[in-house]
Design goal:
The structure holds 2 protein chains of 2 kinds. By secondary structure, chain A is an alpha+beta fold. Chain A is about 55% helix and about 20% strand. Chain B is rod-shaped.
């Protein structure tokens, strides 16, 4: 009988129930969409901020401490310490391997183009790399230097006889794409074809870029790398990571573990040093610090916007629920007149709301996933990852809102006098 | 005249007479309006506010000597300063670079105006203090490690003046600088201190941190190169173009979110209004029985709705401004500029939405047969 009454109320007054169902669904979808986006916005903005390039610089131990000492006077005399090209893949095997977005090795040498001293930089442009784990990954400058404007074409790592020159250098020598130049290194001449001109708005405008292999051959340093730039997704620094950056050994074991297992720029640097023998990894503060600041701001902004929209949706829904329950005063009056107890009335109303709320909530949840993906695709061009924690959050939110909405009206319904209501007062 | 005062009285009485329903409807409208004005204000302010945050990436414009000029002088700073928007310039730092010797080892010394350098490069990490007086020095961490310097130590720096003679000066190391970049290998002193050590007065490069859009920055750079003699301005492309792309993404995020929230709040406001009007069918029946024509009824309900919309709009725009202010203060630590146009827009939109939301149920309601409604069916 009870269920028949519930069913009757739901089916017969379809239009009215549908309004509530729709509102609940709208509210739930808004909550789902916003919460999913909010939880993911950090990762997404972090990805966007990778446009600023590397945030970790990996150098050979020698250059970082000792080499500096002689770099101004005796650089050519002392053998420079180098990193091994074969070790590069190890960067993608550290604890936070998935947070390493990209990296690129560099080996520089002094060269002369038409008698003009320039820095010739050997690098990876877009190298396929098979990892010890069996995965294949891509690394190189092409993805890291998103702000470079290249006239002509990017080099590939197989282009042995080609070069990309900086715009200032090209302007000084009147170089065009397709021109042939001669580069002199250590007294040996190599003919190269200009394949692209880089407008980078920085030091790179004065340099020339060739595949790493070429510089290694010219310098007779097989498989050597002078410097690696790493672009990693990091967590903003806090007090712990600052302490750790000073000296990781000073931490207690528990703190050390927390630090090691969080993607701070300092812990990722530490792990890179562990993975690559003879290396010093230094966070580039310009990128690392600013990222932290902007990430925090964006997350806080999203949190507040989400909060406001949730409050708005909640008030809207509970308003509507209150109105719709009150509307049913005559019906409840009749029920009471034929002998329904307060408990029975309460149960009836609550079950009805629960059914409508559940259906609306589930519908809204899935619609909300759609909303989140629309935001993800239009704004970030990638899917928003779906967090399971949103489900209980939305469920609790919807139940609270429905309960809050129905409470005042239920109190009113219980105090109804059947005779008065039926009389039409 | 009488008709009008009667109409006004009916509208206000019906609002005041059913206070709880009024509050419900007003609340709905006000919240909708608050969401609208709050989010639009935030959306409007995001590029300006976040643009400031992006200045933590450091200089986005540098001025260098052009042509045959060996260096810049201070008059260039003044002239460039006049071309830049004063309220958008976050920091200005002139630099000159010279080789000096510390403990008989050569190092690159950068002379600058340290308060300016601090404003331009907020990402520098300093262990110790920023230099406050002449004779103070910042030392890059690589240099400090190499020669074993710590904050607070005294050190003698040797330079070569214009005549080729050695000049010695004592400096206090107030802090160790960490940046992870080239700065780690430099020492930083005041411009005048370095001039005393290395002779001559020149500036090699001036760094600017300007909170403005990429296009405007490019235009400003062009203007500086064209009008300031002996100087050329270049955008630091890595900073300025990355900022434009990230900022664009963030703004479109807030835009989309605003749009979605807006649509949903409007639906919520309309459903509430529909429920409020539908409840009053009996009253409509009674008035029709007393001889009111449809037009009078529609006019009354619409008048009520519009009044509600206006009240809710004003209330909402105040709340919304409060919200935007809270967001701005919490997130960016700065207040928000007040926009009177925003209030007007909010009120107009909320009046329109409530009016529209009323039309449908009222039109349905006027179709009722008075007798049927009054009998309670």
């Amino acid at each position: 009988m009870f269920w028949r009454m519930v069913k009757g109320a739901l089916v017969r007054q379809r239009a009215k129930r549908l309004t509530i169902l729709l509102t609940v669904a709208l509210g739930a979808s808004l909550a789902t969409g916003m919460l999913n986006v909010m939880f993911d916005v950090g990762d997404k903005v972090n990805q966007e901020l990778k446009a600023y390039g590397a945030n970790i610089n990996v150098l050979p131990t020698g250059t970082a401490v000792l080499g500096e000492r002689y770099s101004l006077e005796n650089a050519d005399v002392l053998p420079q310490a180098q990193l091994a090209e074969g070790d590069l893949g190890k960067i993608k095997t550290i604890f936070w391997a998935f947070n390493i977005v990209d990296f690129a090795p560099y080996l520089e040498t002094k060269a002369a183009i038409d008698g003009d001293d320039v820095t010739l930089v050997g690098t990876w442009f877009q190298r396929e790399l098979s990892l010890p784990t069996g995965e294949v990954t891509q690394a190189g400058t092409r993805n890291m230097k998103s702000w470079w404007d290249v006239t002509g074409d990017w080099l590939t790592d197989a282009d042995d006889g080609a070069v990309m020159v900086g715009s200032a250098l090209a302007a000084r020598h009147g170089l065009q794409v397709g021109d042939a130049i001669t580069v002199e290194v250590n007294g040996r001449s190599t003919p190269l074809l200009v394949k692209g001109i880089i407008d980078a708005g920085g030091d790179e405008d004065e340099q020339a870029f060739v595949p790493l292999r070429l510089v290694q051959d010219l310098e007779q340093l097989p498989a050597a790398v002078g410097r690696i730039e790493v672009s990693a997704l990091t967590t903003p620094d806090n007090e712990l990571s600052r302490r750790a950056a000073q000296n990781p050994e000073s931490l207690s074991i528990k703190d050390w573990e927390t630090w090691y297992c969080t993607a701070y720029v300092s812990s990722i640097s530490y792990q890179i040093e562990e993975a690559i023998p003879g290396s010093v990894a230094k966070p580039i503060r310009q990128v690392a610090e600013s990222e932290g600041a902007i990430l925090e701001k964006t997350q806080l902004l999203m949190l507040l916007i989400t909060g406001l929209s949730l409050v708005g949706a909640a008030l809207g829904i509970s308003n509507l629920v209150t109105a719709s329950v009150m509307e049913r005063a005559p019906e409840i009056g009749l029920l009471k007149a034929v002998g329904a107890t307060d408990g029975a009335v309460l149960l009836l109303v609550l079950v009805e709301i629960a059914v409508v709320g559940t259906v609306g909530g589930v519908l809204g949840y899935f619609a909300g996933l759609g909303v989140a993906q629309i935001i993800g695709q239009t704004v970030f061009g990638s899917a928003i990852s779906i967090k399971p924690v949103v489900i209980p959050l939305v469920a609790v939110l919807v139940s609270l809102v429905l309960l809050a909405g129905s409470l005042p009206s239920i109190r009113l319904l219980l105090s109804l006098r059947p005779a008065e209501v039926l009389h039409g007062r | 005249m009488r008709r009008q005062s009667m109409y006004l009285r009916m509208v206000t009485r019906s609002l005041l007479g059913r206070r709880s329903r009024l509050i419900v409807a007003l609340l709905a409208v006000a919240i909708g309006a608050a969401t609208l004005s709050g989010l639009v204000t935030v959306y409007h302010d995001v590029p300006r506010q976040l643009g400031r945050e992006f200045r933590s990436y450091g200089a986005n414009l540098v001025v260098i000597p052009s042509g045959e000029t060996p260096g810049l002088d201070r008059s260039v700073m003044e002239r460039v300063g006049r071309l830049l928007p004063a309220d958008a310039t976050v920091g200005v730092a002139p630099y000159r670079y010279d080789t000096v010797r510390i403990h008989e080892q050569p190092f690159l010394a950068a002379g600058t105006e340290l308060p300016g350098a601090r404003a331009v490069s907020p990402y520098w990490g300093i262990t110790g203090d920023w230099p406050a007086a002449s004779g103070d020095m910042l030392v890059g961490q690589d240099v400090a490690k190499l020669i074993g310097l710590e904050a607070g130590e005294q050190v003698t720096v040797t330079g070569v003046d214009a005549g080729g003679k050695d000049v010695e000066r004592a400096f206090t190391v107030t802090g160790i600088l960490q940046s992870g970049g080239a700065e780690d290998g430099y020492v930083f002193t005041d411009l005048t201190d370095l001039a005393a050590l290395a002779g001559g007065d020149r500036i090699d490069v001036i760094e600017y941190s300007v909170a403005t859009s990429e296009e405007e920055l490019a235009a400003t750079a062009g203007r500086i190169t064209d009008t300031v003699e002996g100087a050329a301005a270049e955008r630091v492309k890595r900073v300025s173009s990355s900022e434009a792309s990230v900022l664009g993404t963030l703004q479109s995020l807030v835009y989309l979110v605003t749009l979605i929230v807006l649509v949903l709040t409007m639906i919520c406001v309309s459903t509430t209004m529909i429920a409020v009007v539908a409840e009053r069918r009996k009253e409509i029946g009674l008035r029709k029985a007393l001889g009111a024509d449809n037009r009078a009824i529609v006019a009354e309900f619409l008048g009520e709705g519009l009044l509600l919309g206006a009240l809710g709009g004003v209330l909402g725009s105040v709340l919304g401004f409060g919200f935007a202010e809270v967001v701005s203060l919490n997130v960016f630590g700065r207040g928000i500029s007040f926009q009177p146009l925003m209030i007007l827009l909010t009120v107009v939109v909320s009046v329109a939405v409530t009016g529209l939301a009323c039309v449908l149920p009222v039109r349905r309601a006027v179709d009722v047969e008075p007798a049927v409604v009054l009998r309670g069916e």
